[in-house]
Amino acid sequence: MEIDGSQKSGSGTVLRLSIALAAILGQPLHIRNIRQNRPQPGLRPQHLEAVSTAARICDAEVEGAALNSRELWFKPNRIRSGKFEAEIGTAGSISMLLMTVLPICAFADGAVRLHVAKGGTDVSNSPTINYIRNVLLPLLKRMGLGTSLTVPKYGYYPKGMGEVTIAIEPCRSLRSILLESFGKIKAIKGVSVCTFLSERKVAERQAKAANDYLREKDHGAEIQVVNDRSNPLQKGSSIVLWAETDAGAILGADAIGELRKTSEAVGNEAAEKLHTEISAMPTVDIHLADMLIPYVALAEGKSAYLTRAISEHLATNIWLAEKMLNVKFTIKKVGGLFKVEKTG
Question: Distance (Å, rounded) from C-alpha 303 to C-alpha 171?
């Protein structure tokens, strides 16, 4: 299978999904122009470790797996069960590594336990680990993929040093999912975390700011406050919020603390993002919309959901799934939303 990594978003998305789908199909992959459209093209440490971890899980033969490499050959074999270790070594996103290997593990020959060390759990340009745990994984459970995720250490930019462990029960056959109605909000929940910043009440302030914003919009939230002390080498914070409806819709939003960014600004940012989603009344948020594509593509039968916008990552994932899996997606405008549907 030949993939040009400069197509569509030209980002790590093309690499991650093509590796995952090649492993599941058991077909050799040649990908060139890796991350061509990014300021630093080629494999960065987190991409390299994602490829290496995927290769260990499916006994793949790999050529070109080196830092900054723009071309890769990946020849997968059987997807194995067992315990696996990964180590990023920078503040590179653990969440992005998980998104590479999670679809592969769904088709393993038994349970998989993956421990990822020395990475970033909550870093920019990727979902926070608590978004993965509280938004993506519960929806995948509805599709038949059972997981359990723990965070022994949170990790932030620039040092990282975070750790995550995930246990995955393979399902062999994913169930389709139909989310075509927003319904009514039954709960808004959240998790506000700070690491070695409890004396400044960072997690509490993030949560309060988010709650105050949502109350002004006639929404209350139940936000768990976590004063973490797992990583003395790297202070940091994050917050994730999510809304659940009685029709099964789930909308998430997160924000990350940064230097010279107040805790109140972090909480407001997440709340404002969530309110934008709620106001549009889709059935999944804009980020979940692209993350679901590989699972929907691999599931039997028709799946459909509503999103408020077609992101670059969503368009890229649809293009790649259609190309590699011979499935068909359609996107239709429905009122102010977009209906993403896999037809068979």
Answer: 17
The pLDDT of residue 172: 76
For this structure, is 313 an active site residue?
yes
The gap from C-alpha 154 to its chain's centroid, in whole angstroms, comes to: 16
pTM (2 d.p.): 0.97
- The catalytically annotated residue of 47, 275, 287, 313 is 313
The pLDDT tens digits of the residues spanning 61-102 come to 999 999 999 999 999 999 999 999 999 999 999 999 999 999
CB 147 within 8 A of CB 167: yes
**Residue reference for tokens 């969503």:** 314
**Residue 80 per-residue DSSP state:** P
CB atoms within 10 A of CB 7: 15
Instruction: Select from 48, 114, 117 the least CA-distant residue to 81.
Output: 114
CA distance 212 to 128: 22
CA distances from 44 to 2, 67, 93, 96 (A): 21, 6, 11, 12
Q: Tell me the per-residue pLDDT of 34-61, one tens digit each, with 9 for 90 and over.
A: 999 899 999 999 999 999 999 999 999 9
Q: Which whole-number Å values give the CA distances from 46 to 111, 128, 257, 265, 336, in the listed order?
A: 24, 15, 21, 28, 37
CA 340 – CA 314 distance, rounded (Å) = 10
